[in-house]
Amino acid sequence: MENIIEVKNLTKLYKKKKAIDDLSFDVYKGEILGFLGPNGSGKSTTINCILSLLNFNKGNIKIFGREMSPNAYDIKRKIGVVFQDVAVFEELTVYDNIDFFCGLYVSNNNKRKKYIEDAINLVGLQEFKKYYPKQLSGGLLRRLNIACGIAHKPEIIFLDEPTVAVDPQSRNNILEGIKKLRSDGATIIYTTHYMEEVEMICDRVIVLDKGKIIAKGTTDELKYLAKIKEKITVEAKEISNQNLNQIKQLPEVQNISYENGILKISYENEKNNLENIIDFLKNNQIKYRKIYSERPTLNDVFLELTGKELRD
Amino acid sequence: MFFHNFKYTLKALLRNKGLIFWTLAFPLIMALFFNMAFSNIEKQDKFKAINVAVVTNEYYENNTMLKETFELLSDENNKDRVFDSKYVNQDEAKELLEEEKIDGYVVFSEDSQQIIVNKNGVNQTILKFVVEEIVQAEDTADIIQEKVENIFNSREENGIMETLKSIIILLQNNSANIKDNSDANLSYMTIEFFTLVAMTCLYGGILGAVAINWCLANMSNVGKRLSMTPVSKLKMVISGTLAGYLIQLVGVALLFIFTIGILKIDFGNKTFEMVVLALVGSFAGLTMGVAVTAAIKTSENAKTGILIGFTMLGCFFAGMMGVSMKYLIDKSVPIINKLNPANMITDGFYSLYYYDTLDRFYGNICGLCIFSAIMLAIAIVSLRKQKYESI
């Protein structure tokens, strides 16, 4: 796999506090690399250091095999950035905003017109071309923000939490758009604190906490890191303490909790657990309303690695 | 890319209602209010000569030129009459002043002239101004008289030529007298309009500030995005501020059209110099906006507030709320108005209007150029930074 970005020993201090602590990772051509971590974990700071917007104290960053710097215009030409905060002109229409930003990369008018149409179609803003940003909903504004960052068809796209505070329809539209960009050949670096998004679109994930990489790999590889392999939830109003102790003794059960009529059982492996618990409930004549099984999520992995939830 | 950024910055600036109000509409509204407020005052005061007393001491009695000038300026039959003079001794003059029957009195002596007033006001300012001009003219006449006598006493041809040359230079240097003493030329309303032009020129700084804010990654989200484009910061900054400058010049032009064409305010007839002053003044305003934006890290609104505040304070010191303030600052703390761009612009127009020579005008142009150069230096030092500690 071709390396497109190399980050080595990146360290960034805000006064004496380490915002990024010795990060090293590579980004491969054509992949979607997810940066997952809670707020303040260093995701945006990492991106801003890679983009040469922020000074850093230690480390080395190469893009396309060359040192990144504020004057590396030939590298910048191939990069598209969608920042966390919406960065558009309030005074320009949707079309003008995209045309302005695209025009700073593409000077050929005909080519640019086509690129703008492609971007508008990708984010689904066809009906809003003449609207001003103030007239758009939060979700549509986010879509405009994305269109402005990707209209020039960059080879590398940085998306910094592009779905924060958007409605489900816009979120789906944005995620589908990102997959389309990847299938068109772009390499994408995607930061978020929504694990569902990472699971949905990312090929590889780097989990950050307090500026450090605490895990990296594919979503399956990360989930394998968790000791819990299956979680079963039973909605039953009355379970005696004796029965709860018996459940604890069932094979592969790692942990149980029972609160407000909801029993949660964690298993260390995923063989026949559902069958076993259903048998137990039947044999002990315990009535239940619902029972379902889940695989561990990235949040479980994060919880296990850091002792806190992703959205804490 | 340069024209592309220029075009869209211009478009964005023109669609910013707040900016357009402050830079284009507000000066016109102010001009209208000034005209409504001051024209009535002027009408009331137009034919009212200033009540003054001249102390008739020995020096005055023996100085024919002073006597004749004062009598001429106080002559009831003179349509350009400025003073309603009383010729009294010092005690009587004091009494008249205490009883507020006169606006001030003048005591001439060999070394100096004293103008005694008991309050600041337009009449007092005019009195001081006119008396100073009379004394300056008298001094010039004395020097010329002395030099002419030298010519007749000189026996060397070269000496005569040198003395004649020095008289010509003296006459040129001292020709900065009032053109005439007509009511129009003593209009203190005109100076309010000069300060208004200064305000419009300096308000252009807001346009520069906004245009620059858009280019800086540590100042705005748009700036972050623009910092990631393959266009150099210098190109972005120059094309952006140029767009701001263009709108600023339109604002100044509109003000001139409105005040000269509709309100019939007389700005004099040195059109070329007026245009040069407006261009240089606007550039000073623009560089001030750029420097404030580049050097101070705060919100766009706060920067606009700083620029508006600085401009208004500068205009206040330059005489926007009354010409006596300009006089007071010039007299008490002259350094303030020497550094005040609003005063440099106001004074530039003032000197174009009242003086035949351009020395004072060029002095103000130089002052504005130095001010702009300092602002540019601050801006360049601040803008050179390409990576930030935090954004």
E-strand count of chain A: 14
Give the neighbour order of strands across the main sheet of chain A.
6-7-8-3-9-10
Average pLDDT over all residues of chain B: 83
Total individual domains of chain A:
2
Beta strands of chain B, count: 4
Rounded average pLDDT of chain A = 90
Radius of gyration of chain A over all CA atoms, rounded: 24 Å
Note the run of SSEs of chain A as H and E. Answer: EEEHEEHEHHHEHEHEEHEHEEHEH
What name does CATH use for the topology of the largest domain in chain A? Rossmann fold
Helices and strands of chain B, in N-to-C order?
A: HHEHHEHEEHHHHHHHHHHH
Report the structural category of chain B.
mainly alpha
The biggest sheet of chain B amounts to: 4 strands, mixed
Helix content range of chain A: 25-40%
- CATH top level of the largest domain in chain A is Alpha Beta
Pairing-aware structural class of the strands and helices of chain A?
alpha/beta
The percentage helix of chain B is over 70%
Cα distance, first to last residue of chain A? Answer: 35 Å
Helices of chain B, by number, come to 16
Largest contact between protein chains? Answer: A-B, 34 and 30 residues
Number of helices of chain A: 11
Short overview:
The complex is a heterodimer of chains A (312) and B (391). With 312 residues, chain A is of the alpha/beta class.
What does this molecule look like?
- The complex is a heterodimer of chains A (312) and B (391).
- Chain A has 312 residues and is an alpha/beta fold.
- Chain A contains 11 helices and 14 strands.
- In chain A, the strands form 3 sheets. In chain A, strands 6-7-8-3-9-10 form a 6-stranded mixed sheet, sandwiched between helices. In chain A, strands 2-1-4-5 form a 4-stranded antiparallel sheet, covered by helices on one side.
- The two termini of chain A are 35 Å apart.
- In chain A, 42% of the residues are buried.
- The model of chain A has no long low-confidence stretch (mean pLDDT 90).
- Chain B has 391 residues and is mainly α.
- In chain B, 71% of the residues lie in helices and 5% in strands.
- Chain B has 16 helices and 4 strands.
- Chain B has helices at residues 2-14, 17-45, 58-62, 64-74, 90-98, 122-153, 157-173, 188-213, 221-227, 233-262, 271-295, 300-317, 323-332, 334-339, 341-354, 359-383; strands at 50-55, 83-88, 104-108, 113-116.
- In chain B, helix 12 packs parallel to helix 15 (341-354).
- The longest helix of chain B has 32 residues, at 122-153.
- The relative contact order of chain B is 0.12.
- Classes of the chains: A alpha/beta (312), B mainly alpha (391).
- The interface between A and B is medium-sized, with 34 and 30 residues.
